[in-house]
């Protein structure tokens, strides 16, 4: 049985963070981390919730530094390959399924994952796959070790805060990965538009891991 990655309330909202979008009437592009935090907090407060989702497959303008430049071209990586769950720093993160800690590391570059964990899952009679948890707390890396077995529902991490979490508003980036392709902790969370289909096939929608909300709401509609 799948366990919730983070326990949310019934009023959790879904944010539009796509290119050109606004939050509370303010353009998202170009916001500093503290301004971005304030706008997300205001949107959650208006809805009477402490939780807000960001969608899988969404094209975004917030990936602004050279980390997201595509080598040898003028293209940038813009397509979000996971689901975000904005919440308070320190919020517990649980393993949704039994697994083994494949990686635990700190990708400390600006706008990178910050502390992250990747679990390996081998369900009986099914293919091996991985789940990635980004923007965690440093405390997470003190409590978990590579090679450690974890059970469904066991706490594996807590949500981090800026600047330690990659300097993002506090949230969990949760990603489903069919094949790490030898990339380890450098497996991307954002893909270039020109390779959208390839990367989203490797990282299909993880909406089914958030059963408390309609999965369709967590997936960006390319026909928008």
What are the defining features of this structure?
14 strands, 3 helices, 224 residues, globular, 12% helix, Glucose Permease (Domain IIA), alpha+beta
Task: Describe the SSE topology.
Elements: E1 13-14, E2 22-23, E3 26-27, H1 33-47, E4 52-54, E5 77-80, E6 83-86, E7 92-94, E8 99-107, E9 114-121, E10 129-134, H2 138-143, E11 149-150, E12 155-158, E13 171-177, E14 190-192, H3 196-202
Parallel strand pairs: 1-4
Antiparallel strand pairs: 2-3, 4-6, 5-14, 6-13, 7-12, 8-9, 8-11, 9-10, 10-13
What would you note in describing this structure?
It is a single chain. By secondary structure, the protein is of the alpha+beta class. 12% of the residues lie in helices and 26% in strands. β9 and β10 (129-134) form a beta hairpin. The chain is globular.
In short:
The chain is of the alpha+beta class and 224 residues long. It has helices at residues 33-47, 138-143, 196-202, and strands at 13-14, 22-23, 26-27, 52-54, 77-80, 83-86, 92-94, 99-107, 114-121, 129-134, 149-150, 155-158, 171-177, 190-192. The protein has one domain (13-218): Glucose Permease (Domain IIA) (Distorted Sandwich), CATH 2.70.70.10.
Classification by helices and strands = alpha+beta
Distance between the termini: 34 Å
What is the approximate shape? globular
Question: Could you say what the CATH topology is called?
Answer: Glucose Permease (Domain IIA)
